[in-house]
Amino acid sequence: MAAGHSTTTSSSGSITHKHLFLALISTSTVTTPTTAQPQTIKMLHSCTGETEWRMQQELLFKVLVVGDLGVGKTSIIKRYVHQIFSQHYRTTIGVDFALKVLQWDSDTVIRLQLWDIAGQERYGNMTRVYYREAVGALVVFDVTRASTFEAVLKWKDDLDAKVTLNHGRPIPAVLLANKSDQIACQLPKLDFFCRENGFVGWFETSAKENTNIDEAARCLVEHIMNNEESSVSEREPTSILLSGYASTARSPLNCSSCLK
């Protein structure tokens, strides 16, 4: 996989009903998360001096970040999007948002809309609304608190019950064993745990030390893109190869913690 150079943009902070309404509208009426949106035409100059025009597609993917209160979801998002870390983030109330822009390859820009779901929301009635149109999830627990790991399957079951892909399969979810910079409690073999419970991979992460956060997100996006390509293939069973068109193939993701 050729994950391109990433850039970041806004936006998280205190959420009002207006912000939530606008975010919900953006994922339900402006574009569906798996719809390719051609945005720009790139002009490339080859070594022969000829000019090549190429359409660049832009994809919007809604990704949920869930887990119990205090496991470090906001810290992970802040580190991933803004490359900052603080010990003093306020507890998320309801839902918060951030946007990460990735140059996935020469032809594709991906906009990841990250939804930071408050830890107590699993007990509320709004998660079905928050989960709507999501195509992937990061499920986070704190390695120093066994109770947060015990809650992981409840979060996974909640996701599977309330949001699915177009073909009815569950959205891909990556498990994050967060705060790996601290002394961990005893955990089961997570490779086996993930395979048994439908996670596509797991990573030990630390927002403080910036450990494996980019890698975990890349693993999730790779699975989202595979689902997107499968969906496109189902919608377009036949194709015509145009003479002179060159596509860039992505190599498989090389990550021992990203399950295939």
TrEMBL record:
GO terms for cellular component: late endosome; lysosome; membrane; phagocytic vesicle; trans-Golgi network. One of its GO terms (biological process) is endosome to lysosome transport. Keywords: GTP-binding, Lipoprotein, Membrane, Nucleotide-binding, Prenylation, Signal. It is a lipid-anchor. It comes from the Eukaryota. InterPro entries: P-loop_NTPase, Rab29/Rab38/Rab32, Small_GTP-bd, Small_GTPase. It holds the Pfam family Ras. It is found in: Endomembrane system; Membrane. CDD domains: Rab32_Rab38. GO terms for molecular function: GTP binding; GTPase activity. Residues 1-36 form the signal peptide. The small GTPases Rab are key regulators in vesicle trafficking. Belongs to the small GTPase superfamily. Rab family. PANTHER family: RAB FAMILY (PTHR47981), RAS-RELATED PROTEIN RAB (PTHR47981:SF39). This is Ras-related protein Rab. It comes from Xiphophorus maculatus (Southern platyfish). The lineage of its organism: Eukaryota, Metazoa, Chordata, Craniata, Vertebrata.
